[in-house]
Amino acid sequence: MDKLTPLKPLPSLCAVIVALVIWFVIPVPEGVTPNAWHLLALFIGTIIAIIGKAMPIGAVSIIAIALVALTGVTNPGKPGAALDDALSGFSNQLIWLIGFSIMISLSLNKTGLGARIGYYFISLFGKKTLGIAYALTLAETVLAPVTPSNTARGGGIIHPIMKSIADSFDSKPELNTSGKIGRYLALVNYNINPITSAMFITATAPNPLIVNLIAKGAGSEFELTWSMWAVAALVPAIFSLIVMPLVVYLLYPPEIKSTPDAPRFAQNKLQALGQITLPEKITLGVFALLLVLWAGIPAMIFGPSLAVNPTTAALIGLAILLATGVLSWEDILKHKGAWDTVVWFAALVMMATYLGKLGLIGWLSQTVGAGIDSMGMSWIGGTILLTLIYLYSHYFFASTTAHVTAMFAAFFAAGIALGAPPALLGLILAFSSSLMMSLTHYGTGTAPIIFGSGYTTLGEWWKTGFIMSVVNLLIWMVIGGVWWKWLGYW
Question: Membrane spanning segments where (predicted)?
Fold first, then answer.
């Protein structure tokens, strides 16, 4: 008989107690409906269960969906309508955009194209340790638009390449030789990830959720498309990607600074991969097609009648990979991460949406906004304060998705209440949602993979993460703010 995998008692108990206390003990605040307050109880209980890892996030999400349907908080007295509400997240196009994109990204590993791209850049720029760092940066940036799992990109594709380079210089944790080159490359390997995750809607799973929350919070004033997001991120991202390897180099300079053998090592790896295969060519073609469609190029050239919905484009790309045999249906079925993402994303989007519809987000934003307003701050000071609180509260989260779901809508609405331009505020908070990943060794799924390889100490990791958070925040708020103003976004 298979061994049962029970839920973890302590985080489960904490989630249940907090939800019950909010539901039954804490009085419903003035200006909030009982239904909204009860949904908040379920929502906070769900977030606590996710943060505490009471169960896998997909399992927690199924329980949350069931509780919303059972309690009828979204539509009291109408069980059928409440069930429709509880399942409504699965009809959200953005959720399926991420699900399909994760499935598509399978082809990078299966065909070997991801490793080929990484080794190719190292063969070009790898004569210096700093050059290897920039080669890894370029490789991940190229992969970012089509790999919505930042964990798969930074931990599954780039990290093995980084390790093989470090090993080739005999820089290994078990030999206490991480200082040669491994520590530096590991810190760079990780700190690329938050920046590339901020660059595209499809670069990490929470980004489409953010687009959804901005659209709901700003109404018709500001809605982000894939191309608008990418253009907005372009200039500050370039600055961050150039500066980051230099900052890490100054903090923890590698003992080996010249690596004349690295290009030859990468070329040997490329030779071992052989000539580019037909599946790799098809995968490249699909990725090129997706970038063209997501950027809206057909509509720009031929008119809006040829515009393709981003989720439709992802579905077309996946269909091509299946039809050509690059991916099999078995590959799709076995990819638990994609289906898991669809489930938990659907639950969190549903709950966040109905918290807004029931008026809770509006009430919370007015409360936070009034608190900041009482301090006599302008919208500029308020935006900076909101951003700092939002970003550095990530020390208390082990999931960017849980963080975004718990705080983004309220902070965005609070900033708008203070008079902040919706586009400027939305972009700052949106990009901060990825940049905050740099802070800790548990801040996102990529972190434990790279930190667990043992190249750095906890102190080195946290010091680098904090300094990079400051550097990135300054770049994206100052240079980004000027760039977005020039673009006319605010």
Answer: 12-29, 35-52, 86-106, 118-139, 226-252, 282-301, 307-329, 341-364, 376-397, 409-433, 465-484
Q: Shortest CA distance to 308 belongs to which of 300, 320, 299, 317?
A: 299
Query: What is the DSSP code string of 258-309?
Result: B-TTHHHHHHHHHHHH-SPPHHHHHHHHHHHHHHHHHTTHHHHHH-GGG---
Mean pLDDT of the chain: 87
Q: Cα 260–266–270 angle (5° rounding)?
A: 150
* Mean pLDDT on 446-465: 88
- In the block, tokens 């040829």 appear at 306
Judge whether 19 and 42 are in contact, CB under 8 Å.
yes
CA distances from 191 to 184, 241, 243, 337, 460 (A): 11, 9, 11, 23, 13
User: How many angstroms separate the CA atoms of 229 and 109, rounded?
Assistant: 27
Q: Identity (one letter) of the amino acid at 226?
A: W
**Coil, strand or helix: which one is 128?**
strand
- For residue 262, pLDDT over 90 is answered with no
User: pLDDT band for position 220 (50/70/90)?
Assistant: low
Q: What SS3 class is residue 231?
A: helix
